Amino acid sequence: MKLKYVGESFGVDSLTNGKIYEATEENEMMYRVIDDSGEDYLYSKTNPAPLDGSSKGGKWEIVEK
Predict the structure, then answer these.
(1) 15: Cβ–Cβ under 8 A, 6 or more apart, which residues?
(2) Residue 35 burial by Cβ neighbours in a 10 Å radius (0-12, 13-18, 19+)
(3) How far apart are CA 32 and CA 41, in angstroms?
(4) Contact 9/15 with Cβ under 8 angstroms?
(5) What value does the mean pLDDT take over residues 7-14?
(6) Is the whole-model pTM more than 0.85?
């Protein structure tokens, strides 16, 4: 699936506003996303944001299932 991240960009190797990412659905609360680092990480479906609270995060828009 492809997801577009809409929100505050955070980290050099994390998520960038407006960028489309490859992802899979991990469970009812999380997506597994290949982020800017090139590695796959778990991100919240409702508010993808860094765990340290350094960004308010954003939301996902499904581009392709």
Answers:
(1) 5, 7, 9, 21, 33, 35, 36, 43, 48, 58
(2) buried
(3) 5
(4) yes
(5) 90
(6) yes
